[in-house]
Amino acid sequence: MSTPKALITGILGQDGAYLAQFLLEQGYHVYGLMRRYSNPTFENLQYLGIADEVEYVSGDMSDEASLLQIVKFTQPDEIYNLAAQSFVGSSWDQPRLTTEINGLGTLHLLNAMKIFAPYARFYQASTSEMFGGGSDENGEQTELTSFYPKSPYAISKLYAYWITVNFRESFGLYATNGILFNHESPLRGKEFVTRKISDGVARIKLGLQNELRLGNLDSKRDWGFAGDYVKAMWKMLQQEEGSDYILSTGESHSIREFLDIAFGYVGIEDWTPYVTTDPRFKRPAEVKTLQGKSDKARAQLNWEPEVSFEELVTMMVDADLQRLKSEPTS
Q1: In terms of Cα–Cα distance, which of 254, 255, 249, 261 is closest to 291?
Q2: Sign of the C-alpha dihedral, residues 168, 26, 42, 51?
Q3: pTM, whole model, 2 decimals?
Q4: Element (H, E) at 69
Q5: With 50 as the cut, is the pLDDT of residue 177 above it?
Q6: DSSP 129-170
Q7: Does the pLDDT value for residue 144 go beyond 70?
Q8: Which among 9, 74, 99, 127 is annotated as catalytic?
């Protein structure tokens, strides 16, 4: 039996690293799409100890010709499109770049698959931000909830979602959307609020800073562990036919709750003297609450999130404490 081949875009990001690790454990040959950097950052892959196990291919989501060449060269059995300008806040400052990478980049990749690897299976990283806070009567989002995107990021992802559905229905391709709710880990970028908190709490505990500036503390999100979610991505591509699935924990927690657990873990019960609300970090259109209902994924994929909210928060704080303690002091 030949070795299965997977192409992962966004290989250097949080999800790309965890997915590459999981696929390598399953015996896959993993190709990782990389933009041509003068000094690429392999920090996430190195953190997981797999940086040397991935075969890197050079390309760009905004350059259709490069994607055509990559798919033709790699002939992947599975394609995981995780590449994105994924920070919601930056999408307001860079709406065109966000649209080109997240929206048109997905179109380019699907077209490359249609031409050179029509037998392959395609996973599109969709997002709960597409809902924009809309929900059913129970306050949850399901696969049937109407979309109401409230940022250039969410709008670009909605285009990617529908073009994936369109290629599946129009050309008979195996194409799947994973509508993932917020998923975090020690590999999360520091621009994201969860990692900003875990890193900030660790620095405050170690006396390296004394203030943490955040936006809306009352925002609620359905937070899970990225390592759990990548397993479901793979499971989506092992079904008889492509479909669309929500991945979520089914619980929503506020940023205040995140702060309670994070500061409490390092022995600081009252965090209010350390946290300042900064209006610069508030979005032009705020999404107050997201909470997903992942019954379809749990039933059809036999998938369950394994890491609890409290375990996730303490995992992230602990990882940042260990990072900072191991850094050389000047």
Answers
A1: 249
A2: negative
A3: 0.93
A4: helix 64-74
A5: yes
A6: GGTTT---TTS-B-TTSPP---SHHHHHHHHHHHHHHHHHHH
A7: yes
A8: 127
286 belongs to the catalytic site: no
Q: What is the CA radius of gyration of the chain?
A: 20
Euclidean distance between CA atoms 129 and 32, whole angstroms: 26
Two tokens at 147?
Answer: 């979309």
Q: Which of 78, 129, 140, 184 is catalytic?
A: 129
Measured at the CA of 99, the angle between CA 95 and CA 102, to 5 degrees, comes to 130
Q: Span 208-218, mean pLDDT?
A: 92
225, HSE (Cβ side, Cα atoms, 13 Å): 17
Does the annotation mark 129 as catalytic? yes
Question: Which of 250, 257, 79 shows the shortest CA–CA distance to 175?
Answer: 79
Confidence class of residue 40 from pLDDT cuts 50, 70 and 90?
confident
Catalytic (active site) residue 143: no
CB 106 within 8 A of CB 124: yes
Determine the angle formed by the axes of helices 226-236 and 14-25, rounding to 10 degrees.
Answer: 60
* Residue-level pLDDT at 87: 54
For residues 215 and 281, is the Cβ–Cβ distance under 8 A?
yes
Q: Of 20, 9, 6, 27, which Cα lies nearest the Cα of 187?
A: 20
Beta-carbon contacts of residue 277 (< 8 Å; ≥ 6 apart): 213, 214, 215, 216, 217
Residue 246: both structure tokens together: 């929500």
Cα separation, 133 vs 152, in Å, equals 15
pLDDT band at 330; cut points 50, 70, 90: very low
Rounded Cα gap, residues 193 and 275, in angstroms: 13
pLDDT tens digits, one per residue of 88-124:
666 666 778 888 889 999 999 999 999 999 999 999 9
How high does pLDDT run on average in the chain?
Answer: 92
Q: What whole-number distance in Å separates Cα of residue 57 and Cα of residue 29?
A: 13
- Residue 219: partners with Cβ closer than 8 Å, 6 or more residues away: 254, 255, 286, 287, 288, 289
**278-283 average pLDDT score:** 65
